[in-house]
From TrEMBL:
The keyword Oxidoreductase applies. Residues 181-410 form the Glutamate/phenylalanine/leucine/valine/L-tryptophan dehydrogenase C-terminal domain. NAD(+) binds at residues 188, 218. It comes from Candidatus Taylorbacteria bacterium RIFCSPLOWO2_01_FULL_48_100. Belongs to the Glu/Leu/Phe/Val dehydrogenases family. One of its GO terms (molecular function) is nucleotide binding. Pfam families: ELFV_dehydrog, ELFV_dehydrog_N. This is Glutamate dehydrogenase.
């Protein structure tokens, strides 16, 4: 049976609640989403037939502000996955200290099998199904796995057609020139680097250390490029099928060019082929899972050789693996901190849309760095004070903020 990521999310919640006391009401409220929407999305395919896709939107919590979180297109997406991802968004927006709650959406589809027209019709139909519960002050989606700025543009346009709303702030991650923010594309990868850089010395990693990145989607590709630009040796990269490894380092731009040209990493010159499982076990300093959940589990956590795991994917490490890694002295910088750069720049985009402003890339990056570095250091200090791992410390910081909003509402 497929692992249920929401069960892992609840275990994480229970563990954090053992490190610090929180009100039973808060814990009960976070243990289940406020609202879940299942939709059947009919799409006219190019051959004239109709196909019905399963779609989900989970609105986990709006205690701190409107629901916020991406929409994922993946054949394995189901309600348990979307529920877990929505839960993590609630914690993530609290860690980032931005005025949002948490939500997530998904459609069970492999977008690679659709034509561009089919993809657009699916995206617009999904918005028609969800329009009554979305809105710039209600629920604000964004890109996630396999969804792009272009898709956000179709979705925002469809939403505006239905509602007449012209604020342009219901979807974030839009293209530049269509209401998108400077820096949103790189934001998750760059934010991960800022978090890493703020903690690097205290975690005992030298500048120029070796890095392996699992996943070469938007997040992994930007992260690899940014670590390389800062003098780190990127030795391994992978896509959903396979990976490549060269202990002397690869040129990230060449790897990405190869993938673009051939649609695969295999055949990349001067590198060994490694499977996605093997990539996680490589002798590197920094391991960056940037793909899907449940990658590092009790089965393989004992053989991880990295000193630090920087979670740019959501939920890549299971709770059992967390314990094994903690005992082995391997630091896991948790997803709700490490990948919060994406939603933070989504917040900047939303503010710019509502205020009719356009910020420079430089000012976006400066604000992002200041916010994430501050939260990263505070979470590290909490982990020391509470004698616990970074995930529990990040949960504690988030739960304190959510608890505060809950008290204010009484
Ligand atoms: N999908 C991204 C995440 O998991 C970004 C969400 C957003 O920008 O709202 O954090």
């Amino acid at each position: 049976m497929r692992a249920n990521p929401f069960e892992n999310a609840l275990v994480q919640l229970a563990r954090a609640a053992r490190v610090k006391k929180f009100s039973p009401e808060l814990l009960a409220r976070l243990a289940r989403p406020e609202r879940e929407i299942n939709v059947a999305i009919p799409v006219r395919m190019d051959n004239g037939n109709a196909r019905i896709f399963d779609g989900y939107r989970v609105q986990h919590s709006n205690l701190r502000g409107p629901y916020k979180g991406g929409i994922r297109y993946h054949p394995d997406t189901d309600i348990n996955e979307v529920r877990a991802l929505a839960f993590w968004m609630t914690l993530k927006t609290a860690v980032a200290n931005i005025p949002f709650g948490g939500g997530k959406g998904g459609v069970a589809v492999d977008p690679k099998t659709l034509s561009k027209g089919e993809l657009e019709r699916l995206s617009r139909a999904f918005v028609r199904a969800l329009a009554p519960v979305l809105g710039a002050r209600a629920d604000i989606p964004a890109p996630d796995v396999n969804t792009t700025p272009e898709i956000m543009n179709w979705m925002e346009d469809e939403y505006e057609k239905i509602t007449g709303d012209k604020t342009g702030a219901t979807f974030t991650g839009k293209p530049l020139g269509s209401g998108g923010s400077e820096g949103r594309g790189a934001a998750t990868g760059l934010g991960g680097f800022f978090v890493f850089d703020a903690l690097r010395e205290i975690l005992g990693v030298r500048k120029g250390a070796s890095v392996a990145v699992q996943g070469i989607g938007n997040v992994g590709a930007h992260a690899a490029r940014i670590f390389e630009e800062h003098g780190y040796r990127v030795v391994a990269l992978s896509d959903s099928k396979s990976g490549i490894y060269n202990e002397d380092g690869v040129f990230v731009s060449e790897v990405i060019a190869h993938k673009k040209k051939y649609g695969t990493l295999s055949g990349f010159p001067n590198a060994h082929t490694v499977s996605n499982e093997k990539l996680l076990m490589l002798p590197v300093d920094v391991l960056i899972p940037a793909a899907l959940e449940n990658q590092i589990t009790k089965k393989n956590a004992r053989t991880v050789k990295a000193k630090i795991i920087l979670e740019l994917a959501n939920g890549p490490t299971t709770p059992e693996a967390d314990d094994i890694l903690f005992k082995r002295g391997i630091h896991v910088v948790p997803d709700i901190l490490a990948n919060a750069g994406g939603v933070t720049v989504s917040y900047f985009e939303w503010v710019q849309n509502l205020k009719r402003e356009h910020w420079t890339e430089d000012s976006v990056f400066r604000k992002l760095r200041a916010m994430l570095a501050r939260e990263a250091r505070a979470i590290f200090a909490r982990s020391r004070a509470l004698k616990t791992d970074l995930r529990r410390a990040a949960f504690v910081v988030a739960l304190e903020r959510i608890e505060k909003s809950l008290r204010n509402k009484k």
